[in-house]
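Figure caption, in words: inputs first, then the predicted bound structure.
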Amino acid sequence: MNMNHYLDVNPEVAAAIAEGKPVVALESTIISHGMPYPQNVETALNVERIIRENGAVPATIAIIGGRLKAGLTPEEIEYFGKKGQAITKASRRDLAVLCARGMDGATTVTTTMMIAHMAGIRIFATGGIGGVHRGAETTMDVSADLEELAHTPVMVVCAGAKSILDLGLTLEYLETHGVPVIGYGTDELPAFYTRKSGFNVDYRMDTPEELAKAFKVQNDLSLGGGMLVTNPIPEAYAMDVEVINTAIDEAIAQSRTLGIHGKATTPFLLAKVKELTGGDSLDSNIQLVYNNAKIAALTAKAYCALS
Ligand code: PSU
Ligand code: MN
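Bound structure (manganese (II) ion present):
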């Protein structure tokens, strides 16, 4: 029995892959854990529409009843949005047990990359990735997302990482593991809600064609790992640095007081930051995901034109 025994690729996605047409993967943790209902469902459906408008087929990825799904129906997206936090956040270590037990799982960047790769999808759009947490020198809290980027050949288009993380250490980790960090139209690593972080990316690229070519060469060379494309939030939706950093510091202080750890840390910090910044951060979050979906679709198209 091989891994495909556990995988369901939706017919439209399967046809696109078979015909060498562009496909963009999307994660489901952002739906179940990243945003409140019903904005989460509305956003997920809009992201799929934006990908289609830019010439690619969307494949939202999740685990349903123990099946690895590449491509969800609107009804399945609604189900994930409505169930929200009640769906298990599924990272690499959760995959086998969830499948064995026939459970549902919301896929993180890690498991979305894994399932995309199994299905033959090369490009993935999301909001933010996990990374090295502040204080990791004692907690050892490093997201499995970084390890997956080190090994799985999927391009992840995101808006950088939130400064709930130690961005400097996150870049060090990616450098050690050979993951190229690209700035889309920028030399500076964006920090999700803000366009700047004070850290430089490895390379700046300005067109989807340039991104596609670099990733094609990386795959041709069989280097094995992923590529991280960081696309800054549109200027009009960028948040005030002071406001966001104050909220992040407060969220981290509260998580330490409450002894939050393990897989609960990231969802706790994200929820706290949202609570402290009100609706503004949700609106920014939605807009940056749309922006990433568009670049990912155009890059998937450019990638297919090369192959
Ligand atoms: N960071 C964000 N937004 C998110 C996540 C992280 O700014 O939605 C989610 C993603 O699904 C990511 C996961 O893959 O959290 C990382 O969790 P952890 O730090 O527990 O590995
Ligand atoms: Mn962690």
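The chain has a mean pLDDT of 97.
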